[in-house]
Design goal:
This protein is of the alpha/beta class. It has 2 domains: about 200 residues, 3-Layer(bba) Sandwich (FAD/NAD(P)-binding domain); about 80 residues, D-Amino Acid Oxidase, Chain A, domain 2. About 35% of the residues lie in helices and about 30% in strands. Strand 15 and strand 16 form a beta hairpin. The longest helix is centred in the C-terminal third of the chain and has 28 residues.
């Protein structure tokens, strides 16, 4: 049977799109390689605005502040309004809402090739009017559309779910140190009074050991009493948008398109936001029987996210150089981390100038 839309990948980008499309009456099939939804390692921070899109399941804590710790140990507190969610519960909740609206899921089946209107899995072949890649950094669909701008710009994340007493569960902590997480940072995101997600990212070309080894060393030094109950690891794109995110009857969303922020690594909100825009473009294309309508998605994403992502990418280049030593990192942190006004100054000036023009 020929489907209107086949979505490759059932994480938050894929399930958000499936929900938005099914709610509008569009026939949509999601193919997920894993045997369950929500296995992606993630700190799980979501901003408040996501509540306007769908019901949010899996909220663990409400965050009010971010604590940034410099290499010297100096601390800086800034406002951070949002929530920490359990990704498995959160992702499954969105998938369940998509299914309730009429979306169909196939779980535990890997897509190995897409060509034209055909989607080939390890078990079946499916036909679709439109194919959407939400299958992560090594996207099968994405690689059919465009190469990544710089394949060397990526990080490896590692995270433990841990048990230890939290001083203040409304504060998300971030640590910057060449010895802790070269090219990135360590996060401690509370999930309760006695639990937290403790993780980090490392840029491989700057690292001397694995992400897990760096994380173990940090916990052994800073949170000696923490009990580790689960571990996960995954690659994370840091190169901003692919050169193209739409081609013929295919488009890509989330990590597949690399809408992940090159500095913070945050990607949930941009994935959901992108899915909403993609939904509008897909419905237009199906109703008008014109695939050129999909280009609306590419244009809107570049207009709305492109400048911010490029700004972060420019900061990423500075960050990679700053990790030559803790002294340099200390001096560059304010201009390269999202908690500080200095980070946003040049982007704010650029946006203000564009409005005047």
């Amino acid at each position: 049977m020929r489907r209107s839309v086949v979505v490759v990948g059932g994480s938050i980008a894929g399930s958000s799109l499936a929900y938005f499309l099914a709610k509008e009456g569009v026939d949509v099939l999601v193919i997920e390689k894993n045997n369950e939804i929500g296995l992606k390692p993630c700190a799980g921070y979501i901003p408040r605005f996501l509540f306007k899109y769908f019901e949010i399941d899996g909220i663990r804590t409400k965050i009010k502040e971010m604590k940034t710790v410099f290499p010297s140990g100096k601390e800086y507190f800034s406002s951070m309004r949002g929530f920490i969610v359990d990704r498995r519960t959160f992702d499954r909740g969105v998938a369940e809402q998509a299914c309730a609206e009429g979306a169909e899921y196939i779980i535990g089946e890997r897509v190995i090739k897409v060509h034209g209107n055909n989607v080939y899995t390890t078990k079946n072949k499916f036909e679709a009017e439109i194919i959407v890649g939400c299958d992560g950094i090594n996207s099968i669909v994405g690689n059919e559309i465009a190469k990544v701008p710089d394949a060397s710009l990526y990080a490896i994340t590692a995270q433990y779910e841990t048990i230890f007493k939290i001083d203040d569960e409304s504060v998300a902590e971030t640590y910057f140190n060449v010895e802790y997480a070269p090219g990135s940072y360590v996060w401690i995101y509370p999930t309760g009074e006695r639990s937290a997600k403790v993780g980090l990212g490392v840029v491989p070309k700057l690292a001397k050991k694995s992400a897990k080894e760096y994380l173990d060393a940090f916990i052994n030094e800073k949170i000696v009493k923490a009990k580790k109950i689960a571990f996960s690891s995954a690659p994370l794109p840091l190169y901003a948008l692919r050169d193209r995110i739409v081609k013929d009857n295919m488009l890509i969303i989330g990590d597949s398109a690399s809408t992940t922020d090159p500095i913070s690594g945050a990607g949930i909100s941009s994935a959901v936001f992108s899915s909403k825009i993609a939904c509008r473009a897909i419905i237009r294309a199906l109703e008008e029987e014109n695939l050129n309508e999909l280009l609306f998605y590419e244009k809107k994403i570049r207009d709305l996210l492109g400048k911010r992502l490029n700004h972060s990418l420019n900061k990423r280049i500075i960050v990679n150089e700053a990790y030559s030593s803790n002294e340099v990192l200390e001096s560059k942190l304010k201009e390269t981390w999202i908690a500080f006004d200095e980070y946003w100054q040049d982007l704010t000036k650029q946006l203000s100038h564009n409005k005047k023009v």
